[in-house]
Design a protein that fits this description.
InterPro entries: Galactokinase (IPR000705), Galactokinase_CS (IPR019741), GalKase_N (IPR019539), GHMP_kinase_C_dom (IPR013750), GHMP_kinase_C_sf (IPR036554), GHMP_kinase_N_dom (IPR006204), Mevalonate/galactokinase (IPR006206), Ribosomal_Su5_D2-typ_SF (IPR020568)
Keywords: ATP-binding, Carbohydrate metabolism, Kinase, Magnesium, Metal-binding, Nucleotide-binding, Transferase
Bound molecules: adenosine-5'-diphosphate, magnesium ion
Helix content: 25-40%
Shape: globular
GO biological process, one term: galactose metabolic process
Strand content: 15-25%
Strand order of the largest sheet: 1-3-6-4-5
Largest sheet: 5 strands, mixed
Family: Belongs to the GHMP kinase family. GalK subfamily.
GO cellular component, one term: cytosol
Number of strands: 12
Length: 399
């Protein structure tokens, strides 16, 4: 069975109740921002390439109130992160520290233009934490959207600038040198659409994905291999070094011919990494066109090619993700168009495009086979959803 996805309203209600209990008043400001799933275009964003994400129905929510004490007090209602779940920090001396989860909030506060007042807040998220569907960006973007409403903050900057500030928060306070995709889609996602994002120009093109006969199935492997921490920066560095050797500003500009020409000076591993990036950027462009024409077979084929390339050339998959894709593709004649790992890799989620009619059957098949290997997967049927908003609240009106 697919997981029931909690509504933003119910998350907000829980956060508001927790806020009242802890702080003894009603919060006056709130915001929410979604996680994302990348349909195709993996490890291309930091190479100036294309990515093709959509915003998820799972969101991070933050509710709170500005204060005059100079000290921020914040609680997360999510387990599955480091303790303690309640912490305090001074607004005029923002530095990364412990607990780690709070660094995403602090990091954004540190980036805000203008003067951020201190605040009390409670956060809660329905995005699986550490599952490769960007709970981190959703928390950053929700925090930005929350703080943007407070007096003293200059909210008059462009959306792109806001996105870049959230990305910088992740770089500087979480130590994760991520590309721009996650924050971009969390901020700007549109219901019923995926977003083809050109990470070089930072321009996005919305592509409708609202055909009721197909659904996006996100499957959480519920495994996360520890090496993730160092592998991502390593890949990023390899790509930068390869671009230098190829004499291009970024791998976006690399071609198959240029790669072949440099084969003798590149070590085998770097060669494979570049081959993935070049082919993945091309696939992503093609996949967006395929989706635009509702050519799901082509889209699905490109998804599988993407997975294979991530597994073999980029080497960021793992046994569990490969199994989930394999089990999904065993249902090719039962409505599955394609499946691939999504996100950074080494665990986390797969994404599968499947007919709405057969999705339950497909879930059952994957679930049974994955369980036989000793693991439990979680399934989410995900309509493309809206980006960040304050829509559920009126500014400065207590709930
Ligand atoms: P992903 O972005 O794929 O979910 P990351 O490792 O980048 O994985 O981010 C997960 C981390 O983000 C968590 O371990 C936690 O520190 C933080 N985080 C995200 N959402 C929340 C939340 N609602 N409460 C506390 N921490 C959160
Ligand atoms: Mg993340």
């Amino acid at each position: 069975m697919a997981q029931e996805i909690r509504t933003a309203e119910s998350l907000i209600a829980e956060a508001v109740a927790a806020f009242e209990k802890r702080f003894g008043s009603k919060p006056t400001v709130g915001a929410k921002a979604p996680g994302r799933v990348n349909l195709i275009g993996e490890h291309t964003d930091y190479n100036d390439g294309f990515v093709f994400p959509m915003a998820l129905p799972m969101v991070s929510v933050i509710v709170g109130s500005p204060t005059t004490t100079g000290v921020c007090r914040i609680e997360t209602l999510n387990s599955g992160t480091d303790s303690p779940r309640y912490t305090e920090f001074p607004i005029d001396n923002l530095e990364p520290g412990k607990p780690k989860w709070c660094n995403y909030v602090k990091g954004v506060a540190a980036q805000m233009p203008g003067t951020v007042p201190s605040f009390d807040a409670v956060i809660i998220s329905s995005v699986p934490l550490g599952g490769g569907v960007s709970s981190s960006a959703s928390l950053e973007v929700a925090t930005y959207t929350f703080l943007d409403q407070l007096d003293g903050v200059d909210s008059d900057i462009s959306v792109i600038e806001k996105i870049l500030k959230c990305q910088k928060a992740e770089h500087e306070f979480a130590g994760m040198p991520c590309g721009i995709m996650d924050q971009y889609i969390s901020m700007t996602g549109r219901e019923g659409h995926a977003l083809l994002l050109d990470c070089r120009s930072q321009q996005g093109r919305l592509v409708p994905l609202s055909d009721p006969s197909v659904v996006v199935l996100v499957t959480n492997s519920n495994v996360k291999h520890e090496l993730t921490g160092s592998e991502y920066p390593t890949r990023r560095r390899q790509c930068q070094e390869a671009a230098k050797i190829l004499g291009v500003p970024s791998l976006r500009d690399a071609t198959d011919a240029a790669l072949e020409a440099k084969k003798s000076v590149l070590d085998e591993e770097t060669f494979m990494r570049v081959r993935h990036v070049i082919s993945e950027i091309k696939r992503t462009d093609e996949a967006a066109l395929a989706l635009e024409t509702e050519d799901y077979n082509t889209f699905g084929k490109l998804m599988v090619e993407s997975h294979n390339s991530l597994r073999d050339d980029y080497e960021v998959s793992c046994k569990e993700l490969d199994q989930l894709v394999e089990y999904a593709m065993e249902m090719k004649n039962e409505g599955v168009f394609g499946s691939r790992m999504t996100g950074g890799g080494f665990g986390g989620c797969t994404v599968t495009l499947v007919t709405a009619l057969n999705v339950d059957k497909v879930i059952q098949h994957i679930d049974t086979k994955y369980k036989a290997g000793g693991h439990k997967a979680t399934f989410f049927v995900c309509p493309p959803s809206e980006g960040a908003s304050i829509s559920l609240y009126e500014r400065n009106r207590p709930y």
